[in-house]
Amino acid sequence: MPEFFGEKLVESDVDPDPERRGRIKSFESDPNILIKSFPAKDLVRDNGAIAYFEGVQSPFEAAMLAIELYEELKAAYGIPAIPGAFILKKDAAGKELLYTQTERMEGQTLAAVAEEGFRDSGFLEELRRLYASIARYLIDKYKKKEHFLSDVVHPDQYLYGPAAPGSKERHIRLIDIDPRFVTKSDVAAFISFGLLAQTAGNWEEKHPGLAFDEARDALRSFVSQLSPKERRIFSNSIEKIERFVNGRPAAEPAA
Predict the structure, then answer these.
(1) What's the N-to-C CA distance of the chain in angstroms?
(2) For position 19, what pLDDT does the model report?
(3) What is the C-alpha to C-alpha distance for residues 232 and 229, in angstroms, rounded to an integer?
(4) Lower Cβ count inside 10 Å, N or C end of the chain?
């Protein structure tokens, strides 16, 4: 049985998908402490289309960058990532691993809440703010050519649930602390833009009372400033963005 700083690790039941079972461990003494591990040597990689941790020279530097980016999500953009820790450590076989440690959060996926018809007005407002924050985050990172976390755009990375065990107060939280998807690839950025626009548009279509006006206006302004070259290279993603931004008129400016 593997150990982590003296704590025995067991398979967690937090992920019900049998294909992913075993990827997440927990402390034998406390099932609410969740541990994931990733081979450190695999963090800096290039799959041919997208380079991850481009320019980073070592696993330690990669770990430090991942920590910085996760802290930045909430501090600078209001994206509600749950607290977590990153630890670079060798296992019993001497293999260097990057461990992530988080606390278990109960709740529903965003899609599950959506299927219930968005009866919770607090959820609606948090969802609007989340999509506006993600749009701002992706636009800033693309314009500055900085590393970013490309998987924050995926809805299945989030849960809506109690703010604390036993609490009736519920919030959206980014729960999947995964350091592997750090990139400054333009390709990854436009894939993320397209997914953000497509997901938001699909939800608006299914639920007419929901409108991501702030995210829409941010993306509308962004695509209006793209060069002919960018429009040519990233035409598929831009088509998704423009389909979304043209689905509704621009929000009225605040008085």
Answers:
(1) 62
(2) 57
(3) 5
(4) C
* Stretch among 9-23, 30-44, 141-155, 195-209 having the lowest mean pLDDT: 9-23
Pull the structure tokens for residue 30: 């406390």
Cβ–Cβ contacts within 10 Å for residue 204, how many? 17
Distances (CA, A) of 16 to 11, 12, 21, 67, 115: 12, 10, 7, 27, 19
Q: Which residue has the higher pLDDT, 2 or 168?
A: 168
* Selection from 134, 98, 160, 107 nearest residue 212 by Cα: 134
**With 80 as the cut, is the pLDDT of residue 131 above it?**
yes
Task: Give 17's pLDDT tier (boundaries 50, 70, 90).
Answer: low
In this model, does residue 248 exceed pLDDT 60?
no
- The Cα–Cα gap between 53 and 132 comes to 26
Separation of alpha carbons 27 and 18, rounded Å: 20
CA atoms within 13 A on the CB side of 244: 33
Stated pTM of the model: 0.88
CA distance 26 to 209: 40
The sign of the CA dihedral 159, 163, 164, 169 is negative
Instruction: At 179, give phi and psi (nearest 5°).
Output: -80, 0
Judge contact between 193 and 233, C-beta under 8 A: no
